């Protein structure tokens, strides 16, 4: 009888947990544009995000990306502003997957905006009465929430 060490069991458990986490992560956005806004190298970044559970819907998010020079000059190394904007459109036939229909919705995208404590999120909310998908972009912070947000809607009506 072969005995497996605790270290090997921990390694297998960690690998399994990492695989499960990767399989359940929100969607990945692809950068489609970058516009310089000042002489120190700050940019507005535009990313495309296909909803992973709703085929035929693509969202474009924009946000401010601080340059290294701006970080050095202001002394705030690890944080980007919470400002963001979103526009979502039908880009093909809409096919709803297994989406969360609760009032709190479901996070479809999340990206860190500071070293640990802040992230930019896109949350999808299903408005069943009006047959509309609502996409909300907002910052999520551990201590202080942000009132900076933007929404976009995609109707589910059919001709």
Short description:
Helix content is 16%, strand content 47%. It has 159 residues and is an alpha+beta fold.
Describe this structure in words.
Helices cover 16% and strands 47% of the residues. By secondary structure, it is an alpha+beta fold. It has one domain. β6 and β7 form a beta hairpin. About 14% of the residues have low confidence.
| Order of neighbouring strands in the sheet with most strands | 1-2-3-4
- Uncertain runs: 4-25
Helix coverage percent: 10-25%
> How would a crystallographer describe the biggest sheet?
4 strands, antiparallel
- Along the chain, the helix and strand elements come as HEEEHEEEEE
């Amino acid at each position: 009888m072969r005995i497996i060490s605790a270290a090997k069991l921990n390694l297998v458990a960690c690998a399994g947990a990492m695989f499960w986490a990767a399989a359940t992560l929100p969607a990945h956005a692809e950068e489609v544009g970058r516009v310089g806004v000042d002489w120190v190298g700050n940019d507005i970044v535009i990313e495309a995000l296909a909803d992973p559970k709703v085929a035929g819907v693509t969202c474009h998010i924009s946000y401010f990306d601080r340059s290294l020079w701006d970080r050095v000059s202001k002394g705030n190394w690890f944080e980007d502003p919470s400002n963001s904007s979103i526009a979502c459109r039908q880009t093909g036939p809409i096919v709803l997957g297994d989406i969360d229909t609760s009032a709190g919705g479901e996070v479809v995208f999340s990206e860190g905006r500071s070293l640990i404590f802040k992230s930019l999120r896109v949350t999808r909310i299903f408005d069943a009465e009006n047959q509309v998908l609502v996409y909300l972009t907002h910052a999520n912070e551990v201590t202080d929430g942000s009132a900076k947000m933007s929404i976009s809607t995609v109707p589910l009506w059919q001709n």
